[in-house]
TrEMBL record:
Parts of the chain that traverse the membrane: 24-41, 47-67, 79-98
Record key words, sorted: Membrane, Transmembrane, Transmembrane helix
Phylogenetic lineage: Archaea, Thermoproteota, Thermoprotei, Sulfolobales, Sulfolobaceae
Top-level taxon of origin: Archaea
Name of the protein: Uncharacterized protein
Length: 99
C-alpha cells in the first residue's frame, strides 16, 4: 500500500500542467485520508487527534522542501482545511463500514 501510494504521489507531483497550490491540496488530502483510516482503528479520540496532527506536521516539510515554497500561507495554511475534511470524512466512512 505504501509503495503504491508513494508512486502515485511521485507521479502526480511531476505533472507540469498542475499548479503548485493544487499539488499541495492533493498531498494534504491524501495525508488526511491516510490519517482518517488510521484514526478509525484507534482506541480513543486522543490517538485520532494525534494522528491528524502528525499528518499535518509531516506535510509541512513536504511542502517546504519538495515544492521549495517560502510563503507562510502556502506552507501552513493552504490545504489545512482539506486535510481536516478528508480526515473526518474518511474517519466516519471507515468507522461506519468496519465499526
Amino acid at each position: 500500500m505504501e509503495f503504491f501510494l508513494g508512486n502515485f504521489i511521485a507521479i502526480f507531483l511531476h505533472f507540469r500542467n498542475v499548479d503548485v497550490e493544487d499539488k499541495i491540496l492533493l498531498v494534504r488530502g491524501i495525508l488526511g485520508s491516510i490519517a482518517g483510516v488510521i484514526s478509525a482503528f484507534s482506541s480513543s479520540f486522543i490517538y485520532a487527534a494525534i494522528t491528524v496532527l502528525v499528518s499535518y506536521i509531516i506535510s509541512i516539510p513536504i511542502v517546504v522542501f519538495y515544492f521549495k515554497i517560502k510563503r507562510n500561507w502556502l506552507v501552513f495554511g493552504k490545504g489545512s482545511l482539506t486535510l481536516a475534511i478528508a480526515w473526518f470524512l474518511i474517519l466516519v466512512s471507515v468507522y461506519n463500514v468496519f465499526g
